Amino acid sequence: PKGVGHNGDEFYLQIMENRCVGCGTENDLVRFSVVPHVFRCQLPSRFKEHSSHDIVLLCHSCFGLASDASQEMRRRLLQDEGVLENGSFGKGPFVSDQQKVQAR
After folding, report:
1. What angle do CA 18, 21, 26 make, to 5 degrees?
2. Which helix (H) or strand (E) holds 78?
3. What is the C-alpha separation between 92 and 104, in angstroms, rounded?
4. Residue 70 burial (CB < 10 Å; 0-12/13-18/19+)?
């Protein structure tokens, strides 16, 4: 390999345990992206390198709570940027096909 990698970096030298970062359980774990892909792909490349600091393990219960909070934060961010208006797509760059929405 080229370079020294993570030599001396305490984060990578610690013992990694497969536990939920929310409650500590070791059962039924799933990966959760703290920074959703929809936003991560818009970041400068230095933030998109092969580092997994924004991926954490959560159990199903904690995943549900984190996912709900993430969706709410996403909605607020999109609303602040004018993509969502009053919680639904508005005057932003996206257009909703109302016939397809009603078909759901």
Report:
1. 40
2. helix 60-80
3. 22
4. middle
H helix count then E strand count, the chain: 4, 4
Q: Which residue type is seen at 25?
A: T
pTM: 0.63
- CA torsion, ordered 56, 36, 78, 73, to nearest 10 deg: -10
Residues of the chain with pLDDT under 50: none
Q: Is 84 helix (H, G, I), strand (E, B) or coil?
A: strand
Q: Contacts for 46-54 with beta carbons within 8 Å, 24 or more apart?
A: 53/11
Residues 61-91: pLDDT tens digits?
A: 999 999 999 889 888 888 888 876 655 555 5
